[in-house]
Design a protein that fits this description.
20 strands, 51% strand, Jelly Rolls, eight-stranded antiparallel sheet
């Protein structure tokens, strides 16, 4: 990878002094559409707190970013780091916006088969959708598991995605509040999948469509504007 116009850290830092910003830098010859930011945050979860996903936003014209293990969707969605005074771990959150069909942002250098993934999310008003979720065993934009909540539909739903097509495994009605931070957690071990929302188990099922280890990350839909914070995970390959 050829990078010009910015000095990069060799690894993700949790120190504010290591914040890096650049304007007009290029990656593989493509200009960044915005600044590249590595922004420090409070570490509530030790090594499981992942600044790489929450505090790094790269937007590159035409192609998704693959820098320091981050990959973002090729769709029209946008990923950005923004200040939010309501953030559970102040000052910043990861925002996914735009009009992509299923925008995602994953940590590609994490490979987990069994474990958990958890995030705090805040759905913001969208005309078409108000959804946000987590992905795991992510192999590509066409193959992964997804658990999402939707503030328009007031439900939590579990899917698997194969060949780019979503397949619903289970859905449960539950109140999903707009403009309020809520916690979504998924535990996965072999075929067993447990989906917990705000501390309550809503879905527990077995599914074997995707068994290989893969990446973890966050997901939105259509014109949803969703803020994410305190992304945590653990597991084994």
């Amino acid at each position: 990878m050829t990078i010009a116009g910015v000095a990069l850290l060799k690894s993700i830092s949790i120190h504010r002094a290591d914040c890096v910003r650049c304007q007009g830098a290029t990656v593989n010859g493509k200009r960044l559409a915005c600044a590249l930011s590595v922004i420090a945050g409070n570490t509530k979860y030790g090594r499981y707190y992942d600044c790489a996903l929450l505090k790094l936003a790269v937007q590159i014209v035409a192609n998704p970013a693959r820098l320091s293990g981050i990959a973002t969707t090729r769709a029209a969605g946008q990923t950005s780091v923004e200040a939010d005074p309501t953030a559970p771990s102040k000052p910043n959150v990861l925002n996914q916006t735009g009009n992509g069909t299923f925008p995602w942002c994953v940590k590609k250098d994490v490979v987990i088969a069994d474990g958990f993934v958890e995030v705090k999310l805040k759905p913001l008003p969208g005309k078409e959708d108000q959804a946000g979720g987590v992905v795991w065993r992510w192999e590509s934009g066409d193959s992964y598991y997804l658990a999402r909540v939707n503030a328009l539909e007031n439900n939590v739903t579990l899917y698997y995605v194969k060949r780019g097509q979503r397949h619903e495994l289970n859905a449960v009605d539950v109140e999903v509040r707009r403009n309020v931070w809520q916690t979504l957690r998924v535990e996965f071990d072999g075929a067993r999948i447990r989906v917990v929302f705000n501390g309550k188990l809503y879905i527990e099922t077995d599914d074997r469509h995707i068994g290989a280890p893969g990446a973890v990350g966050v997901w939105t839909k259509a014109d949803s504007v969703t803020a994410f914070d305190d992304f945590t995970y653990d597991g084994k390959p």
